Amino acid sequence: MKYIKKAYTKNWCIILAILLLLTGCQGIPQLNSGQIIVSPENKAIPIQGTWKIYDFTRISDIQEDQDSIKDFEKLLDNIAVFAHNWARVADESCTDARYQIRRVKTRDYMVFHHNVDMEELDIGSEMIDIISIISKGSLFFEIAMIDKDTALIYMDNCFYWLKKVSNETDNYYADEQKNQQNHVERTEAQDNLLRSGVLIGLRSTVPSTNEEDIFSERSSYRTIWISSYNRDIKSTLEVPNLFIPRRSGFWTLKVKVRKYNEFLQDNIVLEPLVPRGTIIKEADQQNMTVLKGNIKKDLLFVSDDYIAVEYTWRMGTVTERGYRVLPLDDANSQNGILVSDIAGENMKDIFYTSAQAHLVSNGIKTNTELKDMITVTEDNFALERRNGNWTLKGRVDLGNSYEEFTIGLSPVGKLVNYDDLHVPWDTIKEKVPMALDAYTSPNKELLIVITGNFIMVYTIKNGEISEKPIKKIDIKKGESVIMVEWATGDYVARWEKSFNQLNPYIVNP
Fold this sequence. Notes:
The chain has 509 residues and is an alpha+beta fold. It has 3 domains: 32-188, no CATH class; 192-203 and 221-244 and 417-509, no CATH class; 248-303 and 305-412, no CATH class. 18% of the residues lie in helices and 43% in strands.
């Protein structure tokens, strides 16, 4: 067993200083993220095979008693198996597994995702592959591939080391099928017990309270938790800011306005939910480079791995706006990912062709004019809701104005884990004519309908929407949904327990 200390050191400050250098802008720079998103064919996943947990590295500044250490040791010598459509880690397993791979800078990932230095883990590679295992719209585990035979997985404030022992999975597959059959039989015996929970992140616009702020408005965020048991609402709770479930634990996200000399700039602060009494240190800002310009950041989309942001930069009478989609662990960088990073090889020009089709079909530009008169950068895109699903939208700079267009590419499987609507949008609109958006639970139990005034919760049974909503929650004028994360089964109680650590208050009791 090894021990490591969290990287709240000079390195942390230096890295933040570099990120702040990227955050300020004389306009919004076009930078390459260095992070590539790949959705491979499951048959070709690099982690496929049987692995053994042979060691663990504990984060030392979160104190653990001897019983907790024994709990860590229990996982040693356990087996992890990764097949083309299912996965198992020790006693936890999932079916319908999808594998998402992204290549990241090792140091940045470890610092921003886990607050540790790569040297503390004896990792020498500058770049590593991070493999996310997705099952039924939820993240099962996230694994760092150190090399072809060594991997690292994070669970409960501890890093576990995996060593590949075989390329085979067939022997374990038969056992897994038997376990799944037993699970189905148990579920049927429980009279179709249903448990659902949903975290809804909301953004609203509020007047700025800072007399020095040149922006009259800033964004405010909150998270609502709704849980149900057999189609009965059990709890509706709320906390300020965003509460995000991730494989590495639960995190909170805030947007803080900070002053650098005469400039006010938004800074995105991501912090892990840690046991009460644990101190989270912030970086020393005294020696950071101060950048020119006032910066406002509005979050448009948040998931467990990515955020979409609209930046507004203002200097004197000059104002510039742009979109970015960023890794959540590098949320203050300008290193937005590119549309081509999430598109297949045969769709690498989808951003440009979508922009061209929009401008020509709307009579804004001709094909001849497009070659010389527009500025198109394929990191200038975001996500938005349309008819109950997430879609991609791009923005093109026409010189004296901006034009927005739909990008003909689905973000599901790339940026969004789960986005199924189990009731047709037309049916929802017929039921609730004022509906602006809608979401359904993975177990097809609940329907969440968003109107201009309410979050309305309906039940679904045999594909039919309940006659009346079982819960209505007031929302503010102009408030929009930027995050929806679902939990089902045993995960509902776990999520609610963690959510309660933030001392939420009850919504519409």
